[in-house]
Design brief:
Length: 270
């Protein structure tokens, strides 16, 4: 399968972001990609009042991305969206849709682990606005099984063990990593999740200064089941494609089948 990996800067101008995203979907189609994957919150990042104004547009935006998928006959992970929680003003899920090439929404993954940190650039606390999801989400595609996660989730290996136990072969992790943590943790965490689960990891990331003035790290990656970086972007905005084969997982397991050596009797994965 051919994956189109998008790296962009999310501003507080929704229409401008959507125009950029549509252009990348068209480019991915022209490059014969099977799937195009965007970073976390690629469609909009702003301050709290600006985000509150965008929140009611969730259903409309989901329909927009579904229409693009159908128009260009391509699977789309549009990055995560703010999904309003019924009857709770301003409460929301950080939700990653998987949309197939017919425009059908096949899955909605709600971020399980919410980011809290005191970093040199600012204090982060997603619990002020978001509620955590409650489900591990994987889904079958013609090329294999996808597992879904978002950004901060990458620090919690138990999620990825659970996805692997469900048969996941490609782990999609759209992200908006901060620069201070990105410099020291981004590559290490993504490679670790790939190596320990012998899966591909696909991680599109935001880059540059976003609409709420946060500085994001970039360096979007695709990592092999052996832990090799197959493609990496720097800090630029753009799209790259890379073709992967699920057969590489079997080859990796023949070299070193760590999954077969696990001890479910002592450490049962959910």
């Amino acid at each position: 399968m051919r994956i189109a990996l998008v790296q962009m800067t999310a501003s507080c101008d929704l229409d401008a972001n959507l125009k950029i995203m549509r252009g990348f979907v068209e480019e991915a189609h022209q490059k014969k990609a099977d799937i195009v994957v965007f970073p976390e919150m690629a469609y909009f990042i702003g301050h709290s009042k600006e985000c509150s104004a965008v929140l009611p547009k969730y259903d409309t935006l989901l329909k927009t991305f579904s229409n693009w998928a159908k128009e260009f006959a391509i699977d789309i992970l549009p990055g995560s969206l703010r999904e309003p929680i019924s009857k709770l003003p301003c409460r929301q899920f950080n939700t990653l849709p998987y949309i197939d090439a017919t425009g059908q929404v096949l899955a909605l993954y709600r971020k399980l682990f919410l980011f809290r940190a005191e970093l040199p650039d600012r204090v982060y606390d997603e619990t002020l606005f978001y509620d955590p999801g409650k489900e591990v989400i994987s889904l079958q595609r013609p090329w294999g099984t996808a597992g879904l996660a978002i950004c901060f989730d990458i620090r919690f290996p138990e999620l990825f063990r659970a996805l692997k136990k469900r048969g996941a072969q490609i782990l999609f992790v759209p992200a908006a990593f901060a620069v201070p943590t990105g410099k020291v943790h981004w590559h290490t965490l993504l490679k670790a999740r790939a190596i320990e689960n012998q899966c591909f990891v696909v991680a599109p990331a935001l880059t540059g200064r976003c609409g709420d003035e946060r500085q994001t790290f970039g360096h979007s990656l695709i990592v092999s089941p052996w832990g090799e970086v197959l493609t990496e972007m720097g800090e630029e905005v753009g799209l790259v494609t890379h073709e992967i084969s699920i057969d590489e997982i079997e080859k990796c397991q023949k070299r070193l089948d760590a999954w077969a050596c696990r001890r479910d009797d002592l450490f049962p994965a959910p």
